[in-house]
Amino acid sequence: MRIVLSRLDRLGDLILSTPAIASVRRSWPGAHVTIVCSRYNAVVVERNPDVDAIAILPSGVRPGVFGRRFRGRCDLALALAPCAPDFSLVRATGARRRVAYTYRRRYLARLTAPLFVTDMLVSEADPDLCERRKDYAVRHEVDQLLALVERAGAHELVRELVLPIDDVDRNAVAHVPAGGITFHLAPRWFKEGCTLASTVGLIGELRRFGLPVVVTYGVDAIEEAGAIRAAGVADAVAGGLSFSQWAAAFEKSRVVVTVDTGATHVASATRRPTVVLFEHRYFHLNSQEWPPYHVPSACLRKPSDETPEALAACRASVVEAVDALLHGRTAAPSTTV
Q1: What is the reported pLDDT for 333?
Q2: What CATH number is associated with residue 20?
Q3: What is the chain's mean pLDDT, rounded?
Q4: Number of domains making up the chain
Q5: Model pLDDT, residue 337
Q6: 3-state secondary structure the chain
């Protein structure tokens, strides 16, 4: 049995795919499993025990062209992302069984599905319905992906995220204070309902708990991290970390605070209670489909404007959520505050 999986999009979504990947391994233990990734997101599966090979799509190469290398050498192909590049790659494998999923309003993808796959599942995710009907339910992406591999024939489903961290990673972040609050800095903290000044103020307010406050950041927030460091509101500002070192830094925390980005899912994979500030638009969809997975959490909504009153209320809601998680007052796996 030769199986090809495709996930070419975001880092966080590939983390959420790891239960599906593990389910494939458990269901076909003797199979050879190859996952096709982008150069960006491949770091998620570099140490994944459930894949035999990682194939990275080269820059400038069309997925359909790349997928042809598996023609005649693939029995089952799964598109783990509801995206045209993954559909094209899976189609090009020529596998006898090709399975994918798409969103209910992607009518063209549904109409042309027989050209690409043998089985197309339809996700209930619909941003407009979620905004109009607050009781409209959408499954977590992990559960949608488990339904996908189940349709492909998987009979043993795994419901834990897989993100191995080793002692080399832990030693690399030994200088990062443990047992505190980790705040991940990302561009969404500085626009559309948030500002840099308010974010600096929020980090300062988190010091009231008497715990170390650690700020992590990537290449997309270098300048802002400098402003945080200059303000002196954090005990440590950690950048330049590898992906696995970043996860190891999260592992040392009592609570992670982030906006809606891949950090949410790294925190879940390291079993850390998490506060997530989602965008105001499509909050009711995003907070159902991409909240922290199987950890105590609070899903908050950005304000619709950046008035001083709205920003102050937002900061207060984050502090209140952190307080609840630190004191075990959030019983449900995901709570909307």
Answers
A1: 39
A2: 3.40.50.2000
A3: 95
A4: 2
A5: 40
A6: CEEEEEECCCHHHHHHHHHHHHHHHHHCCCCEEEEEECCCHHHHHCCCCCCCEEEECCCCCCHHHHHHHHCCCCCEEEECCCCHHHHHHHHHHCCCEEEEEEECCCHHHHHHHHHHCCEEEEECCCHHHHHHCCCCCCCCHHHHHHHHHHHCCCCCCCCCCCCCCCHHHHHHCCCCCCCCEEEEECHHHHCCCCCHHHHHHHHHHHHHHCCCEEEEECHHHHHHHHHHHHHCCCCEEECCCCHHHHHHHHHCCCEEEEECCHHHHHHHHCCCCEEEEECCCCHHHHHHHCCCCCCCEEEEECCCCCCHHHHHHHHHHHHHHHHHHHCCCCCCCCEEC
